[in-house]
Amino acid sequence: MKKILLVCNAGMSTSMLVAKMKKAAEAKGADVSIEAKSLSEAKAEISEADIVLLGPQIRYELNNVKKIAGSVPVEAIDMRDYGMMNGEKVLAHAMEVMGA
Amino acid sequence: MGNSKLVDKFTMFASKLGNEVHLRSLRDAFATIMPLYILAGLAVLINNTVFQWLLSGDTLTNAQYWGTLIVNGTLNISSLLIAPVIGYMLSQNKGYENPLAAAVISLAALVVMMPNTVTVTPVGAEEGVLVQGALTFGNVGTGAMFAGVIIGIVATEIFVWISSIKRLKINLGDSIPPAVGKSFNVLIPFILVMSGFAIISAVLNNVFHTDLIQIITAMIQEPLRTATTGLAGCIILYSLGNFLWLLGIHQSVIYSSILEPLLIVNMTANMAAYAAGQAIPNIINVAFVPAFGLLGGSGSTICLLIATFLVGRNAATKNVSKMALVPGIFNINEPVIFGYPIVYNVSMLIPFVLTPAMGIIVAYLATSLNFMNRCVVYIPWTTPPLLSGYLATAGDWRAILVQALILVLGVLIYIPFVKINDIVMEKTMASE
Question: Closest partner residue to A9 among B245, B252, B340, by Cβ?
Fold first, then answer.
């Protein structure tokens, strides 16, 4: 099972996107676990994730998070997809990056 | 707007600011401590409302002891809490391998800077007496919070720097358990940092008859606080933070590093005064700003949503507004920011920055004209509007009226810009 970790400031706005992504994952039958965490909580769990997605409002943290993540891919979520809470698009992109 | 060089430069600057290690560590540290302050606010609220409704006499006094204890464990040890946490965060963010040691040294250095002889007033007495060997709430509480931050940062910086000097490292070899090796590794930096701080503290005490806590509070905290949390300073900084949202960057880059800590200082002073039954000093504080400037989220976007429902014609924005309504009630508005969108949208610039500023000014006027009580409860920023005003002012129903007024004015401000945005979006779609 691949683990997708979404990160934003407080973990609240990303949790809405997570719900939509979970729905999309179910429809696809994808074997993924998707979680939203705040930045400070996420730092402890990054090594266990298969991909880390940052809310675009904290994309300035990208380099920092990449350093902590090591080999785990880290990306900032596309602003439009985030705004429209497009769970399918974000999930599809994540799956592509993870090579799943 | 998204393509101009100036905007790009500002975005880069904001990103650099957001990444700056001290500001980031400050944000992390306050985020860790915040639940304690929210609890303190709740405790003070219950002490002064619920308990007073249900109990009286000796039972009341005994019950209120509960609230007093919570205040002791939170507000009254603010600097003891913040110094080690910021030491930990800063050293961790700098990649230092032993952040716990940095936390320890920050706390120790803080206490070193406190005077050995303090004045306390015995229970029932009128005058203070000098005692030795005591830490007073005055020196470890909210008044010294800034000193805690500064000493925490300075001590950690020096500690990490000295630790990186290879010549000073004591290496015991690989056969020694790591924990023991670690504690020896930090021995010399500990000794140097502590002695250095103690020398400064001693000089301040013996030659100048003061201590660093007093100096920092009087010469740094107070001027900074009155400048940034005064009406003008607060509006400027807050608006700058809101402007960042238009670039798609979380306002916390400016707000949580610069404005919020000082707003928290104001808040804790209010909470302590409320708990002691004294006059509440600060109108502008960390509960006031979101209660009156963040209705539905940054930019007071619940007003935008309502305006869109009233006069909006564009199907896309109406759709986004419907979807964003429920989180918006809890002041979460990223769907609006990125979906409406607010980001890179010139039409939204003016109302997004103006409405919160208007809210703060209206609420400030209402408070100074004594129409509304000052905020004394540290409510979570996700508290829905109308409820937030009521709770923050410890149950002043007039706060609900003020919030309702701000809401109406906000909708009126947003209406023309919703119309402009509709026209712009139509034109853009037609030309695509």
Answer: B252
Q: Under an 8 A CB cutoff, do A58 and B382 touch?
A: no
Query: Sign of the C-alpha dihedral, residues B67, B68, B73, B78?
Result: positive
Do B202 and B323 belong to one domain?
no
- Residues B220 and B310 placed together within one structural domain of the fold: no
Average pLDDT over residues B314-331: 92
Give the DSSP letter string of B16-35.
HHHH-HHHHHHHHHHHHHHH
| Closest chain A CA to residue B327 | A13
Q: Is the CB of residue A44 less than 8 Å away from at least one CB of chain B?
A: no
Domains of chain B: total: 2
Give B424 to chain A, closest Cα distance, Å.
18
Residue B7, domain member (yes or no) = no
B340 to A16: CB separation less than 8 angstroms, yes or no = no
**Predicted pLDDT of residue B237:** 94
Which fold does the domain A2-98 belong to in CATH? Rossmann fold (3.40.50)
Q: Is the pLDDT of residue B431 over 80?
A: no
Boundary of a domain, candidates B209, B224, B239: B224
Q: Is A8 an active-site residue?
A: yes
Confidence of residue B2 (pLDDT cuts 50, 70, 90): very low
Same domain membership, residue B41 and residue B179: yes
B18 contact residues in A (CB cutoff 8 A): 58, 60-61
Q: How many CB pairs under 8 A join A and B?
A: 72
Please say which residue of B224, B244, B272 terminates a domain: B224
Does B12 reside within a domain?
Answer: no
pTM for this one?
0.82
Mutation target for A interface from B250, B256, B383: give the one with most A CBs within 10 A: B250
B296 and B212 within one domain: no
8 Å CB contact of A79 and B15: no
pLDDT at B1: 45
Radius of gyration of chain B (CA): 25
More confident residue, B135 or B176: B135
Q: Is A8 within 8 Å of chain B by CB?
A: yes
Domain span at residue B188 reads 24-224
Is B390 part of a structural domain of the chain? Answer: yes
d(CA A20, CA B330): 19
Q: Which amino acid is at A23?
A: K
Q: Give the active site residue among A8, A24, A76, A77.
A: A8
How distant, in Å, are the alpha carbons of B113, B200, B214 from that of B197?
7, 5, 15
**Does B217 have pLDDT greater than 60?**
yes
Cβ within 8 Å of residue A57, ≥6 positions away: A8, A9, B245, B248, B249, B250, B334, B337, B338
Within a domain: B267: no
H/E stretch holding A76 reads strand A74-76
Quick: pLDDT tens for B16-40.
Answer: 888 889 988 998 898 888 888 888 8
- Which ipTM value was assigned to this complex? 0.78
Cβ <8 Å between B339 and A56: no
